[in-house]
Amino acid sequence: MNKIIVLDRDGVINQDSDAYIKHPNEWIPESGSVEAIAKLKKAGWTVAIATNQSGVRRGYYSRQTLHAMHQKFVGLLAEHGVAVDWISYSPYVSEDNSPCRKPGTGMLQAIQNRFDVSLAGCPMIGDSIADIQVAQAMNMQPLLVKTGKGERTMAKNASELSDVPVYDNLLTAVESLL
């Protein structure tokens, strides 16, 4: 089995906001998330990020600003001597009906193509029902974290989550995988 994992960004790796994360200064890592990714990388995992970023389409921030947020993230990982292998994002809103936007499978298909692997059976960690649904659509192993929108997701979608393991945060999820 390939050791590849897909992570959502907002609410999993960094703190989320209903007002959107619009600037690198607002991009604040969740406690333990950078260390969790470092542990994955040091254990030989390929780490890919798949993140809906409708704020681009809504005009809340530019692609350049999104790139600057990701550069901040990459810099924090570099302090631990690691890097993510892939960052995929969808700038679209739900009304665009883009196959790239989770729960559409486009970003995950791109990850499969990039690494020439099947994601079936591989873990995906998210905080929203869209993350869980896309993982299930790709026959992945969905994991939910309570950070970000995780608690809200659990309250609103309990019946859909009966077989989905739930963790306090990315670090506890990663420690259970390792």
Automatic annotation (TrEMBL):
It is found in: Cytoplasm. The keyword Hydrolase applies. One of its GO terms (molecular function) is metal ion binding. It comes from the Bacteria. The record marks 51, 102 as: Stabilizes the phosphoryl group. Keywords: Carbohydrate metabolism, Cytoplasm, Hydrolase, Magnesium, Metal-binding, Zinc. Zn(2+) binds at residue 100. Its cofactor is Mg(2+); Zn(2+). The keyword Zinc applies. GO terms for cellular component: cytoplasm. The record marks 101 as: Contributes to substrate recognition. It holds the Pfam family Hydrolase_like. Mg(2+) binds at residues 8, 10, 127. It catalyses: D-glycero-beta-D-manno-heptose 1,7-bisphosphate + H2O = D-glycero-beta-D-manno-heptose 1-phosphate + phosphate. PANTHER family: D-GLYCERO-BETA-D-MANNO-HEPTOSE-1,7-BISPHOSPHATE 7-PHOSPHATASE (PTHR42891:SF1). Belongs to the gmhB family. This is D,D-heptose 1,7-bisphosphate phosphatase. It comes from Hydrogenovibrio marinus.
